[in-house]
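WARN no homologs supplied; continuing
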Amino acid sequence: MGIAPFGENLRAWRKTNRLKQAVLAEMLSVSQATISRWEAGTDIPPAHAKHRLNDLFIATYRGSLAYDAHMVSGQSQLRALFDLESITLQVASAGFQSVWPDFAMGAKPALRNHLVEESAALFGRDDFLQSVVAGDVAYVEAVSDRHVSLQIDAGFRHRWFAGFKRYGSRMLIDMTYEPCPTDTALGISKILYVDDLKSQFSFL
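OK structure emitted
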């Protein structure tokens, strides 16, 4: 797999961690325009910003499940945490609950044997799951209509982003969903590996 430019990987990392450019800019004591230039590839971070990004990058892989669950549950965006092993919903945001109420509020079945489309193509593959558990996969982006064959999944065309976090012995999938035009092509558009990301964050 080819290595994406630094700016593209920075944008992918930022989106995976649900950070707006303005928020990241404040954390790094730079302007939003500066973040935009880094992501566009027209400028590169100075040394002090690289070290701060390094700290942030490492911190995102050392989260607290209780804290993250609290943060996710109150959000208006479509976001949810799933257990990787069983693909069972653990936490759903307020936005997720409004779009998929039967999914979020009812029983929480194990979904692994009910996956369809792009979710089945990824999470039904043993080699991919092994890479996730090993900590090799940083980020996935895809477009789907549905994720499971059950009626609780109200299908509509959407783009989704998956990040992965380990909490002790558990690995969770951190999913975010965005509606997109109905003529958007279905499929897996990106799988970003940690080694590719580190090669661009050369200070890691």
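The two ends are 20 Å apart (CA to CA).
OK
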